[in-house]
Amino acid sequence: MFFSRALILAALPLLAVAADLCCQSTGDASDSAIAALLASLGITDVTGLVGVGCSAITVIQVGSCESANTVTCTDNSHAGLVSLDCVPINV
Q1: Which residues form a coiled coil (predicted)?
Q2: Does some domain include residue 48?
Q3: Bridge partners (DSSP) listed for residue 51
Q4: How many contiguous H segments (helices) and E segments (strands) does the chain have?
Q5: What total of structural domains would you count in the chain?
Q6: Fewer Cβ atoms within 10 A, N terminus or C terminus of the chain?
């Protein structure tokens, strides 16, 4: 029983956590400019909506971010340069 709990706790950091973001721009991964940016970062095999120049939405930012650029993304591991697997949201 102890090992099953330890395994669950060890796996928690591996779960993707979506974050609500305000991005400078968003677009499909197949868009030529976004595809070139992804390639320059060595990021391959990406589909769907990509956020570019994203930061977390704060209470102060609510209402100041253009609605076309508010997304929630599950892959935010690229230092804010790009966020992957995004879905548009209304804030």
Answers
A1: none
A2: yes
A3: 26, 83
A4: 2, 4
A5: 1
A6: N
